[in-house]
Model the fold of this input.
Amino acid sequence: MKQVAFSIIASLIYCTAAAQINSNLILAAQPPAQLSEWGNRREVLTLILNAQPGAAGQFKIKTEIKTLDGTVIASADLARTTTFTGNPAGATILFANDAVPLENMVFTGKYKTSLQRTGKLPADNYTLCVRPVRAGDYAPLGEEQCKNFYLATTQLPILIKPYNEEILDAKSAQTAILFRWTPVVPQQTSPVTYRIQVFEVLGNQSPVQALRSNQPLLDKEILAATQYIWQPQLAFAPADSNATRKYPTFIWTIQSLDKNHNPVTQTDGNGEARSEPLIFFVGSTKKNN
Done:
């Protein structure tokens, strides 16, 4: 009987403690992939906490990020997180920097590696769970609140024009060459800088060798726009009879950079956020009679 009574008392104490703070978590369904951006945008996460009458006191926020199967991939180090004081006269409102303090979050395995390397978690569906706990012993002060969210894969620009193996008229190309590409998807939180580069493919080089080893003929950064007109003012000499290609050959690509001049994604294979390059030729498009 004593054990039963003790269990009942313990349950009552737990329920009383767990009901001291009511919370409401509001989280964007698709927040920025760059976790550090969460703190710069208040609309990403809001946590509203209301203390019961006479229950205002010091508390911390126990935070966990999980995969949809319930595996915990990150948790807050409560020994280092901020201690908050409940507002007896109204609600305490916290934002992403308070509820998901990256400097005090402990990530595991590949998620830690991805965050350290790119500032992002792998594209996937996740669950964020938060709970107010007592500052001293981390005993629960309210119910756990969880919301699902999705981190999207960044799609790099697709090069449109010149299209692959397009032959540009030499006379027109001396004056102007139009380059066009699609924007980064999804739309980033700050304007993307597109760095366009054009390389000439020399001698017996492969296009990839030219891209990796030659100095670019064009190396230009364009903020937010998805087209550029190049005025090369070059004499495009025709290939000689011993050349492996009929026309002078060029390869072009786009590198996408964020506001800090870093690649918008580093999980694209080359780690530099470079789009799949295309080649084009410059020569006469008219047939001789």
